[in-house]
Amino acid sequence: MGRVHDAFAHLNGLLATGLRDLTSDLGALDGSGWWAVVVDFEGKVTCARFDAVRPAPLPPAGPWIGPVEWRSSLDQAGYERGVQAIRGYIAEGEVYQANLCRVLSAPLPPSADPLALAARLSSGNPANYAGVIHVPGLSVVTASPELYLSRDGAVIESRPIKGTGVTRDDLLEKDYAENVMIVDLVRNDLGIVAAVGSVSVPSLCTVEDYPGSVHLVSTVRARLAPGFGWPELFAATFPPGSVTGAPKSSALRIINELEPEPRGPYCGAIGWVDADRGTAALAVGIRTFWMTGGEIRFGTGAGITWGSDPRREWQETELKASRLIALASSGGNR
Fold first, then answer.
1. For 11-70, what is each residue's pLDDT tens digit?
2. Which of 6, 161, 240, 307 is most buried, most CB within 10 Å of its CB?
3. Does the residue 334 lie in any domain?
């Protein structure tokens, strides 16, 4: 695949090399070619079109040398204060649910190889939407289990995850209520660009097992109305409902107020678009590392409702982060 600093992507079992275009125009995804896509939670778009795309395993990489200590944008006390603040907004009727997230960061040597981290995650935390994208100025390595948007012609689908526990017995009534709330939000978002009457929910609150945790997962499906493309899809549905809250506009305002650092690719969209075939799969950027400016970052968060216990929500963010941070740290699980 060439030198480690050559642009590449490995997504959906495909290795893409030979970077042709790099653009921030989502409309390009309605054109031609195979694209790797990263959209930050704050809306920064990176679309990379590659000339050579073929089925292949992850290329070999050297050892991963990760950080020893991580800094959190919110410590436990700060996070728990944020949970209480959201409960206050819920009591005032401003929001029903909001996600509160924190970003872990650490310095990295310039020689850090994203392929080496991708290989470690692949063996230690396999995921449905695992992948790595390396383009000038940005490297993203994801082990996301959550589908933001897939596309097969005009058929679009989202599979929001809300509700997390170590085992099925840990799931609470609050988790099921939260999932249903977000499903309604996703139905509404897709309805903006869907053919009338085409929005459906084939599955609701299915319990699925993942490495180190279980999640509640639902599926929302629709048919894209004629005349709409990727810019309209993103305008209607981004950022993903499962990592914002309901109503989304209120949740975004609260997130901006309470979170001290931008989320970046975390909670954004990461994946691929095959414009020639009209197919795509974009994951929600959770369980995701990104490397830029000599630092590596990783986000973790939880959905806050009136029934949330601040300490339990902090522990949920720890649960979501622990396995992957151990894998990405020097001396972590091999």
1. 999 999 999 999 999 999 999 999 999 999 999 999 999 999 999 999 999 899 899 899
2. 240
3. no
Strand segments (E) across 153-249: 155-159, 161-165, 200-210, 213-223, 245-246
**Domain of residue 285, CATH code:** 3.60.120.10
Identify the pLDDT of residue 331. 56
Q: Say how far apart CA 334 and CA 327 lie, in whole Å.
A: 7
Tell me which residue range forms the domain holding 100: 8-328
At position 143, the amino acid (one-letter code) is A
Q: Can you name the residues that pair with 220 across neighbouring β-strands? A: 158
Whether the CB-CB separation of 261 and 103 falls below 8 Å is answered with yes
d(Cα 225, Cα 246) in Å, to the nearest integer? 25
Interval 284-294: pLDDT, tens = 999 999 999 89
pLDDT tens-place string over residues 157-213:
999 998 888 888 888 888 898 899 899 999 999 999 999 999 999 999 999 988 878
Token pair, residue 215, equals 């999640």
Does residue 81 lie within any of the structural domains?
A: yes
Residues near 183 by beta carbon (within 8 Å), at least 6 away in sequence: 160, 201, 204, 218, 220
1 is a domain residue: no
The overall pTM is greater than 0.85: yes
Count of the separate structural domains present in the chain: 1
Angle at 61 between CA 320 and CA 210, to 5 degrees: 25
d(CA 176, CA 21): 43
Q: Is residue 166 part of a domain?
A: yes
Whole-number pLDDT of residue 5: 56
Q: Cα–Cα distance between 19 and 323 in angstroms, integer?
A: 33
Strand ranges inside 88-199, DSSP E: 97-107, 129-135, 138-144, 147-152, 155-159, 161-165
Name the β-bridge partners of 246. Answer: 97
The type of residue at 48 is A
